[in-house]
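Hey everyone, long-time lurker, first post.

I ran two proteins through the pipeline my lab uses and got sequence/structure pairs for each. Pasting them in order. The first:
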Amino acid sequence: MTKHKFILSGGGTGGHIYPAIAIANELKLQFPDAEFLFVGAKDKMEMQKVPQAGYEIKGLWIAGLQRKLTLQNMMFPLKLASSLLESKRIIKKFKPNVVIGTGGFASGPLLQAAGSAGIPTVIQEQNSFPGITNKLLSKKANAICVAYDNLDRFFPKDKIVLTGNPVRQDLIDIDTKRDEAIAFYGLDTNKKTLLVLGGSLGARRINQLIEKELQNFLSQDVQIIWQCGKLYFEDYKKYNQPNVKVVDFIERMDFVYAAADVIISRAGASSVSELCIVGKPVIFIPSPNVAEDHQTKNAQAIVEAKGAILLKESELDAEFSIVFEALLKDDGKQKQLSANIKKLARPDATKVIVEQIKKLL
């Protein structure tokens, strides 16, 4: 039997890295003797997270374009040329059967080089509104795995496969883990738990909101797991107390989801897909600072299915405390949001994506 080789590329944020790792893990289950190589951007978090997951990674000298004129932007053509050359070298040496891109700066040059070398490529697009890189790469890709309907506006229709986004498999049976999770965080089983997620780096505006509302939460007998992000941990760790657990990064996502009764979250595509599987009441506060306002569009897709509440950053001061208190007091509303968001879950997404990859072998 021939030994298969796969290159995966995705990075910059957890939202691109974890789907790539989930796909690699599923491929490894089905092809135990396969060889894997990840390609990322040199100074981004994938350079730590991928080796922690047990895979080798090579870094490209690449970064995205900034929205204003900067030295970074002037360096972009040089970085792109360098990354394309390095990608060609990597592909020539490793000789992959299939190359898979999950988004992020490095996947652009890598998939471009793979396509030019005649190697089959798969794009995994997490968002309801694709970025410019994937739109360009889609013309040569063999398959485009998507998580939302109506993406034929952006991609060739005959290549699109609706799969959903890959998620961690340990999220599928969290209902059995609540007591263990509450004990793990030293919390009280009789209190409602609010989980605050700002993404792997943290979200300044959400952190400011939680700081402002903290006494209000505690007065309503709510306990909090507050993931403030590594950029902000030094500023907010002073709020750690028996009913408030401030953390920079969460290793056991299954535990925090199991402990949560209500969740406040950004609306990155991977987070949204996980929250559909978790099926808890969610208040989305999308980041307004991402390309093409992806996060608002991701959250709106859930809100239209009556599966979540959406508050824009500009609405927080006027509306947040009213909306939160109303949700906390209304068990019926909580159950309705849970039931509706769960209907949108695609727990088999990773397996379906791997089936598409296998067709190209």
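...and the second, right after it:
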Amino acid sequence: MNLKQHTIQKPVTVSGVGLHTGVIASMTFQPAPVNHGYKFQRIDLPGQPIVDADVDYVVDVSRGTTLEHNGARVHTVEHTLAALVGLQIDNCLIQLDGPEPPIMDGSSIKFIEALDDAGLVEQNALRNYFEVPSEVRYRDRDRDVEIAALPLDDYRVTVMVDYNSKVLSSQHASLNDITLFKQEIAKSRTFCFLHELEALFKANLIKGGDLSNAIVIVDREFEDGELDHLSSLLGKPRVSVVPGKGILNNIDLHYANEPARHKLLDVVGDLALVGRPLKAQILAARPGHAANVEMAKKIKKLMRETQKPSIPVYDPKIPPVMDIKQISNLLAHRYPFQLIDKIIHMDESSVVGIKNVTMNEPFFTGHFPENPVMPGVLQIEAMAQTGGILVMSTVPDPENYWAYLAAIENCRFRRNVVPGDTVIFKCEFMAPMKRGIAKMHGQAWVAGQLVMESDMTASLVRKK
């Protein structure tokens, strides 16, 4: 699984009819910044409202998952979201000029192909995984549906379907490696049973459905004239069935267990609505959109309950965003005042830097030599250098600028920093930069404990 966040390199568009609304629409995947997540945008509506891909905004699960936010609806989002999750894309704006993504062939593969064509780009931020800490379980006894999420340092999904049908027997599907989603799951198409067709049409659903974008499983005998009626419903000159094959118009399946694989695809797409990539083992028995959404709500509730303060995690095994050479190319500081060893995260509004404090620091020879403590002013300097890197990153030619510390406010030192400590500095913009002036809030932690914090003002000055 990816360590860092990804988006796409360029916009890419797909077009087609919506499965349930029957409205023809174009959908454009747009690159998005770090921590943007998945958002839909109805560009056909006044104000072009944004619809966050969040389980809190699910309003309907009738044969698909529908979101409503900021006065706008987007129908049948699960196949689109599954494609993004399957390619481990974290940040994407999905623009729609209609109410529903195109159904394409009823799977996610056309979206996968379009996103592959756009190309992926790694971003300078770690993925914000939610690792399920303990078993989460959803059960609907009336429908005999059960979904469980178990702790696992990976993302795996197993699905079992059983419709008590002579035509469609019990099936299982598993995804044990997210990198295999495109190969093993993405081509699996949506399906329904013949006995459901009439009811779905009467419920004002599947207006865009036909045999090119869905598999219809024949689960009963035909009456005289019924094939002609089905042909009319599906907009086909003639539909047929070979006795014993069980698929309307005798469409070949991509896999013997394609229905189970498509249900797995739906689970992946619906669980994307928790808002963060997951690390968990998902086990689902006879899932549907209603159950998937309820499970997503349970996981998000647990996420909120276990959410820790926003302390950056430092794993020295992960390559840094900027190493000491790159820092030296950006900042003018040199020994003994170059105080930041690496940058482990940076986006448009925040930066995280690392300072490894050793007994060999030159200031320990004169600052409490019998009781070595890192001077507070140097802690502020290290924090300012971290923030300076963020400020310098806002211009395309940082080599032509100086970043000066202009003000310090609300500074507090919580505990001593001593040799052997690894200090994690985080600086965030408090407001957008204006005329080269940046206001930042900085914090520093050692072993998960806050050691100091301060508000700082920096001035970006062009070199003469």
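Reply from user beta_strand_b:
Welcome! Quick read of the second one: The chain has a mean pLDDT of 89. The chain has nine helices and 24 strands.
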